[in-house]
């Protein structure tokens, strides 16, 4: 017999589905409920490797941490990793199965994929008290409804009640709630139980007349009004939507432990992946992290990070077009620190041979590290552990490129030459002792009187953030009504809302 479940949908992308899903998971597990997260299909360049070697979205790994369970491929059976505006790598049950155009993906295999998605969901529901599912985009993407395996398609197949989250900070939230409801078919509307308002600022009593009118128009309640909160540093889903000019993951600097701050510039390369690697740097007191796309923005940086990317050759071309490649070469010659991670590591090498990702053949790298890279058809997915700079390190690997290291000083699976480091390991900077040792090396090379804080624990900071999400639900949502929804399904007798009903 299936146990409790709920699907958290949104009026738009970035409405707050991931935050609400993680918050509900943390609230439930603190009540003693055995809960798991789930997202049938995820489109993201930020991914994670589970202990069994499966690749899933980082958002689901974060939600699993919120639920205090080990992430598995069951929690994200389909992952799409964009390689261009029109094509993505399809990762099924944690393993890549090919590259497909958007038209080809939506035009084939959807029935089989829906069976896989629902089967994974039912397996999770059989072993947990509740499964909190996250939708994607909007459930009212009527052009995609026939092939939907993540929103109302999975909700209807598994008879899940649905909450729709709306970001009131963007404006138009009532129209978005009503329009989303009205565009759904009657069978889908039967499962849409109500709404959650996200990012509200001000006096909630001023909002209540609108919530009452929304209920009179749709027959559906609002299950919570969540206030706007700064600094909820959860993992982003989609690297393609990073705003280079916005304050994207620009760290708020706590007072440094030493005399100086340390300034980190991250090259915002195309198809940037796993940019969450620099979160641990931003968590350090006295470290400022910013994303850049111009050569002049590297001038005052103490450390430049070239991050992972789904398009290594494309990133290399982009760096050259913008003068960033030349600036990186100058930095290396001057002994100023540079760190390349995964695709960024490959860019720093001597040569790239790629007949898999870009099919560009042999391409010269920046030549800052004695490394030659050959792209293999099989993707490396691993959870390595090791030691570097005298400290224990954990990481994870997601790459097609196989690096042949020809010299330099050993550094994780890569190498170091002077003040230039390269590795395929994502997540290594989350290892506290290693991060501190690395920052001491960077500060020395940069001539900064920067001292890493001795007691910063990235894992503890992440737990604090997840607890804040749980508090958000516990304090500002109708948790009794939420639990009735999770346990009993959508209320019976919800009315059908035809388009244009308010007039």
Automatic annotation (TrEMBL):
Instruction: Give the matching SUPFAM superfamilies.
Output: Class I glutamine amidotransferase-like (SSF52317), P-loop containing nucleoside triphosphate hydrolases (SSF52540)
- Which Pfam family, an example, fits this chain? GATase_3
| Gene Ontology terms describing biological process | cobalamin biosynthetic process
Query: Where does the sequence pass through the membrane?
Result: none
Residues annotated as domain CobB/CobQ-like glutamine amidotransferase: 263-433
Q: Which PROSITE patterns match?
A: GATASE_COBBQ, GATASE_TYPE_1
Q: Which residues form the CobQ/CobB/MinD/ParA nucleotide binding domain?
A: 7-238
Positions of the catalytic residues? 342 (nucleophile), 426
The pathway it acts in is: Cofactor biosynthesis; adenosylcobalamin biosynthesis
Which keywords accompany this UniProt record? Answer: Cobalamin biosynthesis, Glutamine amidotransferase
Among the GO molecular function terms of this UniProt record, one is: ABC-type vitamin B12 transporter activity
Domain of life (superkingdom): Bacteria
Family per UniProt?
A: Belongs to the CobB/CobQ family. CobQ subfamily.
Chain's role: Catalyzes amidations at positions B, D, E, and G on adenosylcobyrinic A,C-diamide. NH(2) groups are provided by glutamine, and one molecule of ATP is hydrogenolyzed for each amidation.
**Can you say what this protein is called?**
Cobyric acid synthase
Tell me what organism the protein belongs to: Streptomyces tabacisoli
């Amino acid at each position: 017999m299936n146990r409790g479940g709920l699907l958290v949908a949104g009026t738009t992308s970035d409405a707050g589905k991931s935050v609400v899903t993680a918050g509900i998971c943390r609230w439930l597990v603190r009540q003693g409920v055995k809960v798991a997260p789930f997202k049938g299909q995820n489109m993201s360049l930020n991914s994670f490797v589970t202990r069994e070697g499966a690749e899933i979205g980082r958002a689901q790994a974060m939600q699993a941490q919120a639920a205090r369970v080990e992430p598995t491929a069951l929690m994200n059976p389909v992952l799409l990793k964009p390689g261009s505006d029109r094509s993505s790598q399809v990762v099924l049950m944690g393993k890549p199965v090919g590259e497909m155009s958007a038209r080809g993906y939506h035009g084939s295999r959807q029935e089989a994929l829906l069976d896989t998605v629902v089967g994974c969901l039912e397996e999770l529901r059989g072993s947990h008290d509740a499964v909190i599912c996250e939708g994607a985009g909007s459930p009212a993407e009527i052009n995609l409804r026939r092939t939907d395996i993540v929103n109302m398609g999975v909700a209807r197949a598994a008879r899940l009640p649905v909450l729709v989250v709306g970001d009131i900070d963007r404006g138009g939230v009532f129209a978005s709630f009503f329009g989303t409801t009205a565009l759904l078919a009657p069978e889908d509307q039967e499962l849409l139980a109500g709404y959650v308002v996200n990012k509200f600022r001000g006096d909630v009593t001023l909002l209540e007349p609108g919530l009452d009118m929304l209920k009179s128009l749709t027959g559906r309640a609002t299950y919570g009004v969540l206030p706007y909160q700064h600094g909820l540093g959860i993992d982003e889903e989609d690297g393609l939507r990073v705003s280079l000019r916005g304050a994207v993951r620009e760290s708020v600097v706590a007072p440094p432990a030493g005399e100086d701050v340390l300034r980190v510039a991250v090259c915002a390369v195309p198809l940037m992946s796993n940019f969450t690697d620099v979160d641990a740097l931003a968590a350090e007191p006295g470290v400022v992290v910013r994303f850049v796309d111009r050569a002049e923005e590297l001038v005052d940086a103490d450390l430049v990070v070239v991050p992972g990317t789904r398009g290594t050759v494309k990133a290399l071309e982009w760096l050259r077009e913008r003068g960033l490649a030349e600036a990186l070469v100058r930095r290396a010659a001057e002994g100023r620190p540079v760190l390349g991670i995964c695709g960024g590591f490959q860019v720093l090498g001597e040569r790239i041979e790629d007949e898999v990702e870009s099919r560009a053949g042999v391409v010269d790298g920046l030549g800052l590290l004695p490394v030659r890279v050959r792209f293999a058809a099989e993707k490396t997915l691993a959870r390595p552990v090791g030691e570097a700079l005298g400290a224990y390190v954990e990481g994870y690997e997601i790459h097609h490129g196989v690096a042949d290291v020809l010299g330099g000083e050993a550094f994780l699976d890569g190498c170091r030459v002077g003040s230039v480091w390269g590795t395929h390991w994502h997540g290594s900077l989350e290892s506290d002792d290693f991060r501190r040792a690395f920052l001491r090396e960077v500060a020395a090379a940069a001539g900064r009187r920067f001292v890493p804080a001795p007691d910063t624990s990235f894992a503890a900071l992440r737990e604090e953030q997840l607890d804040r999400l749980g508090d958000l639900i516990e304090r500002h949502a109708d948790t009794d009504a939420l639990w009735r929804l999770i346990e009993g399904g959508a209320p019976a007798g919800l009315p059908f809302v035809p388009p244009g009903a308010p007039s």
